[in-house]
Protein: Nucleosome assembly protein
Organism: Mycena metata
Amino acid sequence: MSSNVPISSSSFPAPTPQNTPLSHAPISSGMAMSRPTVPDIDEEGAEELQSMGTTGVQGAMLGMVQGKLAGLVGQSSGYVEGLPVQVRRQVEGLKGLQVKQTELQNQYKRECLELERKYLSLQKPLYARRHAIISGSAEATQDEIAAGEAASLKEDEEYEPITKLREDEEEEDVKGIPTFWSTALRNHPGLAELITERDAEALAYLKDVTLEYLDKEGGPYAGQPGFTITFHWDAAANPFFTNETLTKTYIYNEEVGYAGDFTYDRAVGSPIAWKEEQDLTREWEIKKQRNKNTNRTRLIRKSHPTPSFFNFFSPPVMPDEEALESGELEPEDIEEIEEKLEIDYQVGEDLKEKIIPRAIDYFTGKALEYELIDSDDEDDDEFEDLDEDEEGEFDEDSDSDEDVPTRRKGPPKRGAAAAGSGSNVDPQECKQQ
C-alpha cells in the first residue's frame, strides 16, 4: 500500500515552451523572497496622480503595460534555444526545407501570372469587340443579342426579350452605349465613394479601360511582375484635360509574401494635363486682403486639395527607411499613409479582377449581387441576439417581404443603372434591400 505523500502548495508546474526560463534560477524552499520595491512618490508626484483621478491613473498604467508587452512581440521565449544541440540542428534543417518550398511557391505564382497573361491575349479580340459596340462604331449582331437574351432568361425567368418599343418610349438615333464606363465605375461600391459629381462630368468622356501586364523585356519595369490599367479618353471633346490616355501601373515585389501571394511594391500614375481652372483635384477660393499701410484691398485666389477620383493617378508614397527610422513622421501619419495605400491597391485589384473583365455586369448592376455591401444604417453592432420568446415575433411561414427582416430580402431587380453624366450614383440605391 502506497503511502500518502504530501504535495507542497509551492510546487512549480511542469516546464512548457511558455514558462521555461532561459536560465534556471536556484530558488530554495527555505529562501525568503524579497518583496518588490517601489520608489517613493514625492508630494509633487502624488498631487499629479491625484489630479489624474482613478480613470487617468488606470489609463496611464494600461499604456505602460501595453508598451511593455509590445516590446516582447517577436521575441523568443527561449524554448528553442534551450533544446539539445542535435534537436536544434534538425530545426535548422526544417528551415532549409521551407526555403525550397518558398522557391516553389514563387515559381508557381510566376507561372500563374504567365497564364493570366496568356488568357488576357485570348480575350483581347472580345474586348475590342466590346469597345466597338460601346462606342457605336459597330452594332451587336443578332447572334450576340440572342446569346445575351438567353443568359438573361436563364437568370430571370420573368425576363422578356426586347422585341418592340415600350409604350412610353420613342425611337431615337443613338449610337453605342453613352456613359457606359462612367456608369460601370460608379456602380462599384468602392469607386462610388471616390467619384464626386464634378468627377462624373469628366468620366462621361471615358471611352475604354484596358489592362496590360508588364513587359518581360523592355520598358521601364522590364522583368518585374505587375500590370498597367489604361483609361482612354475622348480628348477632343473633353473640357477638363488634354490627355488621350491616363495610366496606373502596379508593381509587385519579386518574392511572394508570407501568405504565398504577390505583394505590392509600389504604384505609379501618369500626370494629368489639366486645362486652365479645370483641375478636379483642387478647389479654388477667393480671399480679400487689406494692406495695413495703405488700407487698400485686393482679391487673391488660393487653391487647396479636394477629394476626387482623379487623385487615383497620384498614389501615396510610403516614406523610405531613413525617414521612418529618423522619427520625422508621427505613427498616426504612417498609419494614414498605409490606409491610403491599402485602398489604392484594392481599387487597382478590383479594376483588374472585376470591373474590366465584367464591365457589362457593373453597368447593369448585376455585379452588385455579389458585392458585400453593408448598409450605413444597419450595422451589425446595432443588432443583438433575441431571446426564444422574442424570436416568435417573426412569422416563418410568411411569404411577404414586408414581414421579413431587411437583411433577409432577396437581391435587387437587375436593370441598367440610370446614371447621367451630371449626377453621382448613390451607393444606397445599389445596396441589397
Notes: The radius of gyration is 32 Å. The CA atoms of residues 315 and 344 lie 7 Å apart.
